[in-house]
Write a structure and sequence with these properties.
Number of domains: 2
Number of strands: 13
Oligomer: single chain
Structural class: alpha/beta
Pfam families: SBP_bac_1
Strand content: 5-15%
Order of helices and strands: HEHEHEHHEEEEHHHEEHHEHEEHHHHHE
Largest sheet: 5 strands, mixed
InterPro entries: Bact_solute-bd_prot1, SBP
Keywords: Cell membrane, Lipoprotein, Membrane, Palmitate, Signal
Protein name: Sugar ABC transporter substrate-binding protein
């Protein structure tokens, strides 16, 4: 579906129609200094390379916050016209920056950018044929499993969700202390990726009207599937990232993890003693042979409408997201899987992640899987509200044993109510 700017921008009458919104160009005489907000570790080293090669366009890096908190700070700063020239933003949050007049239309500076990126990634920054940032990384959902545990118990690597359930049952029956996975009540981006694979489309827009469909059949199917496995006791209902989960990932309690392709960068801190024991493969499919997967994570870099030097800012983010030099540094320093097509062919990706030396084809495998990745046609302008309802609802449902499908209904209600409160036209 073609994503529309009018639906994104129609919420606030005081804003100019976003189809005509772009950064204010100011002629540059001499040296220009651009401020960039990003939470990526290792960014300073990358910015230093740019600054050494571009004495007339210097980038000053700040790390005020990460994720949703950074978006809040950007919106607050924009009210005073003080947002940074360049900001890192997760894909699901970009529509909120567009709706609030923060993300600038940079189409004139990068007119041919679409050809440089994986289509699924570029779709996250393009609205009504206008470009509002450039994709940095791309994180298809994949399945990691402990090869040694699978071999020990003679388990088959699942290629369908039916097989995943069968493998989870077989593992737990063979050793009741082991589980194939867990359902995380604190990771709505993870769950939304699973629903994307199943065909869900939580938000869509036509003209100035939105449709919200969080409790659609595809999402209910995914929720019911996981609740069934939790009910059987063959997967857990514990959240990711806790000290207990880290311990169990490391000691072999868990034999699998459904995660984004970025996971090797995190594994060292999660399960340091099981390096070289994990293997990555494609996500199990709902229908045998289907290569569709969802996305968990991924970010863009955008130029703000507060920037007095949008052309220079666009030049930097073009270098940052498309040059072999910058992408190789990002692979090394940040452990990204690049959204840029040339970045996916870098020599740096011919060496597997340090945590997974046993899978030399790791990045080539990710590139192949990424071809089947899909996201929602558009993320809603209040995805953070939706995600909050997920966190509140699923944690309680797991504790109380109430229906996961009811959580989706509440997420639907909370999201629609908030959008209408903000002034969006919603038709369901």
């Amino acid at each position: 579906m073609r994503r529309t700017l009018t639906a994104i921008g129609a919420s606030v009458a005081a804003l100019a129609l976003l189809a005509g919104c772009s950064a204010g160009e100011q002629p540059s005489d001499g040296k220009v200094t651009l401020e960039m907000w990003s939470w990526d570790p290792g960014m300073a080293d990358i910015v230093d390379v740019w600054n050494s090669e571009n004495p007339d366009i210097q980038v000053k890096l700040s790390d005020p916050a990460g994720g949703d908190e950074l978006v809040s700070r950007i919106l607050t700063a924009h009210k005073s016209g003080d947002a940074a020239d360049i900001v890192k933003v997760e894909y699901q949050s970009l529509p909120a920056l567009i709706a609030n007049g923060v993300a600038a239309d940079i189409t004139e500076y990068v007119p041919d950018a679409s050809k440089d990126f994986t289509p699924g990634a570029f779709a996250q920054v393009e609205f009504e044929d206008k470009t509002y940032g450039l994709p940095q990384d791309f994180a298809p959902l994949v399945f990691f499993y402990r090869q040694d545990i699978f071999e020990q118990y003679g388990l088959k690597v699942p290629t369908t969700w039916d097989e995943y359930a069968a493998t989870a049952r077989a593992l737990h029956a063979a050793d009741p202390s082991k589980y194939l996975g867990t359902f995380s009540s604190t990771d709505p981006g993870w769950f939304s990726g699973l629903t994307q694979q199943a065909g869900a489309n939580w938000w869509s827009a036509s003209g100035d009207t939105w449709t919200v469909d969080i409790d659609d059949d595809a999402s209910v199917k995914v929720a019911d599937y996981w609740q069934g496995l939790i009910g059987e006791g063959v997967v857990k209902g514990d959240p990711f990232w806790s000290p207990q989960w880290n311990k169990e990932m490391d000691d072999g309690t868990y034999a699998g993890w459904i995660s984004g392709a970025w996971a090797p960068a995190q594994f060292g801190g999660i399960a340091p003693n099981s390096a070289g024991k994990w293997v990555m493969t494609s996500l199990p499919a709902w229908t045998a042979g289907d290569t569709t997967t969802g996305i968990w994570g991924g970010s863009a870099t955008a130029v703000t409408t507060d920037s007095k030097h949008p052309a220079e800012a666009a030049k930097f983010i073009d270098w940052f997201n498309t040059s072999d030099e910058a992408l190789a540094l990002q692979v090394e320093k940040i452990n990204i899987f690049p959204a840029a097509l040339n970045g996916q062919k870098l020599d740096a990706l011919k060496t597997p992640p340090a945590y997974m030396p046993n899978q030399p084809s790791y990045y080539a495998d990710v590139a192949a899987i990424a071809e089947g990745a899909r996201s929602f046609d558009i993320w809603g302008p209040n995805a953070t509200v939706t995600f909050g309802a997920y966190n509140d609802g699923f944690a309680k449902a797991i504790t109380d044993g109430t229906a996961f499908s009811e959580v989706l209904k509440n997420m639907q209600t909370v999201t629609v109510d908030d959008m209408e409160k903000l002034g969006f036209s919603v038709e369901n």
